[in-house]
User: Fold Preprotein translocase subunit YajC from Nocardia caishijiensis.
Amino acid sequence: MDFLFPLLILALLVPMFFGIRKQKREAEKVASMQETLKVGDQVITTSGLYGTVVEVDDSSVDLEIAEDVVTTWLRQAIREVRNEETVAAETTEATDAPVEEAVDQTETRLTKD
Assistant:
């Protein structure tokens, strides 16, 4: 009975320790990624916006989100850098099969309230 309380405390603290350690490691990984941003990187922001880095400052990044449309973001808003394999796979995946709609589907879509 004397060992029950220390075991309970240990059972609660060990998972918390490992969770904090993992979270700290992920935060360091994201911070290093944000520090190594360079012009030409294709990125995704925390809000899900896809863009290409056109200028990098100490605390902000300018992203081209469409042709001749440039927006300014904080470095902390960049969630991930997309590599060329991912970009190429998404591009071919999107253009593989054209989407066709039947006439009744079109009528349903256009006449819905």
